[in-house]
Recover the amino acids of this structure.
């Protein structure tokens, strides 16, 4: 395999900047990006309603992808949380609770996917908006993501970290993945809110087995309207030779 493309995208329940819920716009954005693996946050999945209202299944079916769901809470009787879409078969799924008492439930969705013969562990993360909350979540990330004993392959941690202060979460992950600097490949890092960006909330962290070929926020007329976030896209390759962890 020469390269593969990953995306992290907070779709804001498919509610666009015009106030309309339109999952078809999210689909169009993803089709434009042409990814292999997608980490979505703020996905709403209603059972026994129209196909479009189970956003995970709808997007997976339209793309012809496999998917995994990590529900963090209920939203108007629907499952709400993180979803990972994959061109390739999913070999393992694990929900990780990153909730802090007194705050909105949060979580990470671990999805194990074999890419080019290599088992990769994707951690799809959506963290809280309060500084004290994220300090506690940094400890949970260290325990359940970075030090998980059953992780045998390279890790990719991606999602909406809400860490605009570059606090303990950012320092923890930057220290763990210090050999990979995705920001160095980005023409611009501030992408939230989509129309008038002044914050950098969406990140991708990679183990050293992987190399960034290209990274960008996908910005066009459709993506600027489809959600309050823009999709962060990275094209990756494996280092030709690497030692296994």
């Amino acid at each position: 395999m020469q390269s593969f493309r990953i995306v992290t995208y907070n779709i804001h329940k498919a509610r666009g900047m015009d106030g309309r819920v339109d999952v078809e716009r999210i689909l169009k954005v993803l089709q434009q990006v042409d990814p292999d693996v997608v980490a979505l946050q703020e996905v709403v999945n209603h059972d026994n309603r129209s196909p479009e209202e189970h956003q995970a299944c709808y997007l997976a079916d339209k793309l012809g992808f496999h998917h995994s769901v990590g529900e963090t809470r209920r939203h108007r009787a629907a499952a709400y949380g993180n979803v990972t879409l994959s061109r390739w078969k999913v070999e393992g799924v694990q929900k990780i609770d990153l909730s802090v008492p007194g705050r909105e439930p949060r979580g990470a969705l671990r999805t194990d996917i074999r890419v080019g013969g290599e088992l990769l562990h994707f951690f799809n993360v959506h963290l809280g908006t309060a500084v004290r909350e994220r300090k506690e979540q940094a400890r949970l990330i260290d325990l359940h993501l970075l030090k998980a004993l059953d992780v045998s392959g390279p890790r990719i941690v991606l999602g909406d970290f809400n860490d605009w202060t570059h606090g303990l979460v950012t320092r923890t992950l930057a220290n763990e993945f210090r050999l990979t600097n995705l920001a160095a490949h980005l023409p611009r890092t501030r992408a939230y809110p989509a129309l008038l960006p002044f914050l950098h909330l969406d990140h991708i962290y990679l183990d050293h087995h992987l190399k960034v070929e290209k990274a960008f926020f996908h910005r066009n007329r459709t993506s600027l309207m489809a959600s309050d976030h823009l999709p962060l896209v990275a094209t990756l390759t494996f280092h030709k030779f690497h030692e296994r962890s």
Q: What stands out?
A: DSSP finds five helices and eleven strands in the chain. The chain has one domain: 4-238. Confidence is low (pLDDT under 50) at residues 241-245. Residues 4-238 form a domain with the Deoxyribonuclease I; Chain A fold (CATH 3.60.10.10).
